[in-house]
Specification:
By secondary structure, the chain is mostly helical. The chain contains 17 helices and no strands.
């Protein structure tokens, strides 16, 4: 038996994997591993395939074998992702921190660390990881956008506006941050300018798509980081409709929804790609502002 026979099966596994023949690839990689169980790349590929198939138990076993044989930034990241997907955020953080310790410029690990700490309501730590990315990649689009959202949600509006301005200098056509900038103006009670910006955005970008569609779906941090924004729509809409109903039934006792309510909903509907609904609330806001 040739000494490199395991490499021949490994290569066949790669070819099958690239063609999408995952079951065949698993067989070839397993055969390669039976001939040489010290070749970490085989286990990394097996882990990735099992991950694609949703088999967390086997994917974690394979990635653990890989990091034990030859620790690397990518293998620790892969293992961290699997622990995160399986709901074990503590172990995910441990793996990701080992990844960035080996490579202080491993962006994917920083992004997932930032996302996990954001989920744990530890925004200060999340900001630290995003700032680390910007030390060596000053124009990283996702890190800048994430910082804008974190500061906005924490009502750190001055810092938010500063980073948003920096972001829009680099990416002036990014609808997401333009929307947040309009919302910043709302928070400062500049409804007229905010309305103007929202109208311009809806006018120039009528085919506005959901933010989720623009995210790399294979990266869990990027896929989920902003999903929480969309969840606000139903809650805000229910509150708005309740105010409207109370006002219709008892106009002497209740006030109608105000301009900021309508602008908030318009913003959220734009985030969700529903331009028609967004424009309905813009019209309401415009009438409210003109009647003041």
């Amino acid at each position: 038996m040739p000494d490199n026979e395991y490499l021949q099966f490994y290569q066949k596994g790669i070819e099958s994997e690239n063609k999408g023949n995952l079951d065949d690839a698993i067989l070839f990689f397993k055969k390669s591993a039976s001939l040489n169980n010290q070749f970490e790349s085989t286990f990394n590929h097996l882990g990735l395939i099992f991950s694609r198939q949703g088999n967390r138990k086997f994917s974690i076993q394979c990635f653990e074998k890989a990091v034990n044989l030859k620790p690397s930034d990518k293998s620790w990241y892969n293992l961290g992702v699997e622990h995160y997907k399986s709901g074990d955020e503590n172990r995910a953080v441990q793996c990701l921190e080992k990844s960035v310790k080996l490579n202080p410029k491993y962006t994917e690990s920083y992004l997932l660390l930032a996302h996990i700490h954001r989920h744990l309501d530890q925004d200060d730590i999340s900001e630290k990881y995003l700032a680390n990315i910007l030390k060596y990649d000053k124009t990283n689009r996702f890190a800048l956008a994430a910082l804008v959202v974190i500061k906005f949600d924490n009502e750190a509006y001055d810092g938010c506006e500063k980073i948003a301005a920096r972001f829009l200098e680099l990416y002036p056509d990014d609808s997401r941050i333009r929307l947040l900038h309009a919302d910043l103006l709302m928070k400062k009670n500049d409804y007229a300018t905010s309305l103007k910006e929202l109208k311009e955005l809806a006018k120039t970008d009528p085919g506005f798509k959901k933010f989720n569609e623009s995210i790399k779906k294979e990266d869990p941090a990027q896929k989920e980081f902003f999903q929480e924004l969309g969840s606000r729509v139903d809650k805000k809409a229910d509150e708005f409709e309740a105010k409207e109903e109370l006002y219709r039934e008892n106009p002497e006792d209740f006030s109608p929804p105000d301009a900021q309510d309508a602008l908030d909903l318009s913003l959220l509907h734009l985030f969700n790609g529903n331009t028609d609904k967004a424009m309905e609330y813009l019209v309401y806001a415009n009438k409210s502002i003109n009647n003041e």
